[in-house]
Amino acid sequence: QKEVEQNSGPLSVPEGAIASLNCTYSDRGSQSFFWYRQYSGKSPELIMFIYSNGDKEDGRFTAQLNKASQYVSLLIRDSQPSDSATYLCAVKVTDKLIFGTGTRLQVFP
Amino acid sequence: GAVVSQHPSWVICKSGTSVKIECRSLDFQATTMFWYRQFPKQSLMLMATSNEGSKATYEQGVEKDKFLINHASLTLSTLTVTSAHPEDSSFYICSASANGYTFGSGTRLTVV
Q1: Could you tell me the maximum CA-CA distance found in chain B, to the nearest angstrom?
Q2: What pLDDT sits at residue A93?
Q3: Residue A90 to chain B, least CA–CA distance (Å)
Q4: Residues A63-91: pLDDT tens digits?
Q5: Are B1 and B96 in contact (CB under 8 A)?
Q6: Mean of the per-residue pLDDT values for chain B?
Q7: What's the gap in Å between the CA of B91 and the closest CA on chain A?
Q8: % helix / strand / coil in chain A, to the nearest 5?
Q9: How far is CA B32 from the centre of its chain?
Q10: Which chain B residues contact residue A99 at CB under 8 A?
Q11: Cβ-defined contact of B101 to A97 (cutoff 8 Å)
Q12: How far is CA A88 from each of CA A46, B45, B69, B75, rounded to the nearest angstrom?
């Protein structure tokens, strides 16, 4: 079993809708979770990170953790075409990040 | 804050030659940096953890003699791909930890 798993997509949503991205992880002891956005040919940009003690909201983005089911989700409200990218979930294991394969999001006008 | 600068952004080299990639933390000190490799349409694969003043820790399956890492100061880590071959062509990205993990802009290596 891979340590971090994501559906590769693409996930297609209309402009203005809510995009919901999910990620499952295998290490039940994981404490820190990260979401990155990566445009084609570019390096990842940090969207937000959360700890095991709660969810987090930042502007249009909300990260939620379900420890019992071992998954992390990222909600993007009011999706824009500029949000079209690959979204990478990462879990901190000791001091390093382990990445999922990423979910490609397409927001169409 | 927390800017990581990576250079060069792209490089083309001949098979058999060596290529050095630099990663600098511009506004913070990074005792630890990480080197990733990303093949097209794949995720980031951690290659090694670079520790200032000590030897790097390589992930399983990564050849330490081929991918030389030097972390001589708190702001600079280098990755040298030695005797590069076409299968080493990839996107190499460094990262450092400062209030979240920040990535450099990446280096696209093409070996011809």
Answers
A1: 39
A2: 87
A3: 10
A4: 999 999 999 999 999 999 999 999 999 99
A5: no
A6: 93
A7: 9
A8: 5, 55, 40
A9: 12
A10: 43-46
A11: yes
A12: 9, 12, 26, 26
